[in-house]
UniProtKB/TrEMBL annotation:
Belongs to the EMC1 family. It comes from Thanatephorus cucumeris (strain AG1-IB / isolate 7/3/14). This is ER membrane protein complex subunit 1. Keywords: Endoplasmic reticulum, Glycoprotein, Membrane, Signal, Transmembrane, Transmembrane helix. One of its GO terms (biological process) is protein folding in endoplasmic reticulum.
Amino acid sequence: MRLRSSAFLWLCALRYVSALEESEAGVVDWHKELVGVPLTDSTKALPAFIRSDPSSPAKKTGMAVATKSNVLAVLNPGSTGNVVWRRQFDQSEGRILQYKTHRDALVSISGPGGSRVRLFEAFTGSLLWEHQLHSPSLGRLLEPANLGVDVTFWHELSDIDAYVLTNGNSVSRLEGKSGNTVWNWSTDNISTLLSRVVLSSTSIHAIGLTKTESYTLTITTLDRQTGRLVSQTQIPSQITRGMRDVFVLNTRDTNAPAVVWFEKHTGTLHSVVLDSQVLSPEIAATKIRFVKVHDVQLDKQGLFVAETNDELPYVFGIYSTGLKQEWDFDDSAISKSETPSLFSGSLDREGNPYIARVFWSLSTGMAHIHTYAAHGSEGKGISTGATFPYDTVEHGVILHCAIDAFMPHGYSIQHRMLLTTSTGAVQLWQLHDLQWTRDEALTDIKVAALVDLPEHKIAEEIASSEHRGFLERLIFHIVATQNLPQYIAQFSKRFATGSYTLTPSSSSSLERDPFGFRKVLVVATGYGTLLGVDTAQGTVVWRKIIGVSSTGPADVFPFKMFVTKSALEGPDPEVVLVAEKKLRGRKTKTSVVFHFRALTGRWVSGSASGIEVSETEVAEAFVLPGQSNVVGIVSADGKAHVYPNSRPSIDGASQLYFTRAIGSELRGFTLDSRLSNPAVETWKKAFTTPATFPDTAASRVEVIHRPVSPVASYGKVLGDRTTLYKYLNPNVAAVLAPDCAVRVVDLVSGSIVFDSGALPAPCVAPKVAFVENWLVYAHEVGGNSTDKGTKIVSVELYEGAGKDDKTNSVESSSFSEKSIKVHAIQQSFLFPYPIVALGTTSTKFGISSKGLLCGLRLFYSHRSATDA
């Protein structure tokens, strides 16, 4: 009878059991495909619109970008700006130096001195071939890195080979179909640095500079078929800024190769056409004196821009007879209310050139674009102007503008722009309308915090009841009792069926869902920005600029971030960011804090410039024990500061301890409870790099703290009814040393609780996860080892010397002998794939068993693995 009852209850329970369907397994809620912030410091790798071969039946358009994350990618200019394809270049190979499109192909040069050349299909990313021209160790380390690197193609199908300049002294012809070397020529003249190559019908010309009292323009001519040296000519010049003032173009009338250079001290433009044995330099026939020239990537069309002292831009073209002024933007004279102009060029599908000038006007509060078309107005040229509402408050300064333009008729220019901003954002504008924004600064997150969202009803009640009196509140609660039957019905349904009404992820308001999965991810990036990301969809809901950034790093360096007010304390959670700030004219950094609301980014106190708490750098930052809304900051001079600026005592503690990792040393410090005296160093441990390790090994220490989470079980009961008590000393952390050993160190006393031992040289720092008493680390095993792959070591730390040996590690002093009485249980496993990150699962009350999360670098997956 009892068996029948049990079976009946089990069958009834099946009604309320839910499981994950096979179709839902492995489904990703959202995935943000990032490529990195585009490079804007080199004309050889600027973002650009690219088009398919004009002879191709499929008319395709994309946006090619080479980024600071060493990624080469093509974006879709459609409604979302999604990634068509992207290729991550290994960091050990070196950065991307140049890319160039030719018909339906895209060639890239990367590595020291341009050691590696790759050819891709431009709109699929398929690698056609790859060729190493020289060993990376033989690459010349030039500044800028892309100096001495160039690639060009012949415009006719009779020759599809690539002509590549590398190392500033070597020219190679590579087969277009295979990448094999047809011929190679190099020079041993170390005083000459070649930087550009251009083709003529029978020759290839390499242009560079020879350093004398000033720069001498050097033109080396080689035979295209054999690579034989034909001639070498040196033209005296007064070039002072190197190859920035030298352009290699084709003449607009005869398509012959030509060189144009700018001599700053005289403000004059010079040119020479490379179409004869005797080269005759010419000076531009104009009385205008220039101060700056701009490459607009219209080499084949023979156009560039020169600016005068009042920044009035002129468009010049090169002809077989010399330089000729094509246009001047006289309708856009510069005033003090306008920012310096950006110039870029593009071609339409018919091959007609366009030049755009973009600037920001303080008087109008908008960005302006003036577009010039040389073929407009029946060949006389035409220029049109427009404005667009670019938001400098959210996105900072425009660093680069790539343009895509066409003329629907002879007197109108339509355009779209791809903007790269100082905050790391990439935007597409169609005329004056913003199409989409990609926040590529998310590829450089320095610190981050997950913030719980408030419940919608609670937030409304708090907001509406702040100014109510007692009688009003009493009436409100009496009226609210009419919803009691509905609440009881909904609660009964949830209890019986487990069915919840989920808040739609598309909701514009930020509010908690029934399970608390939806949160706001607050991040501080290396581009001086704060971003709030809705974890329901991955969308950026707010942006704030806290640091100035142009082509270099921002002047604000995030250190740590703390949630000082949670959703349980009110409808507007608050976050404090501790950072370092570099001030102009000062060599040292200051310590600043930024206090803002997590859901909107609005400042609670202070402003975008932050609140200065110390005139020196940050040494450590922490939340004061017992006061979750007070942040303590220890500056480099050892002085302690608090924010908000009050002087509270540390509840329940006579002293406060913290550590600093300085180079290969780990140092411990103490502060008194009133934070009135400077920090005192109490211990120091040096972790030296073994002599067997290479010189390139990183000599630094990394401290990995355990996450603060509830502990439901303090021990493990074994089969013989003995107990192993978890080692839960709150003062310990995992420490990674230069010898790749993983150690557990008591940060108060400096005692080493556990030591894994050094890994064989050379080694890569292991990936580590540490929670409660469970330490997991993973490292690659290779070389002469019999087992190759990734070794995962699981370590469980328990109190005392064995079973039933309880030392009460949670409450014991770190200076007592029993605090370091620990025994470890270790297990190791061999994994076939590289692991890039480790993590552990967590639950609200810590009741469920912990699970290990492994971030893998997989380039394919077996069906058997996905079905398992």
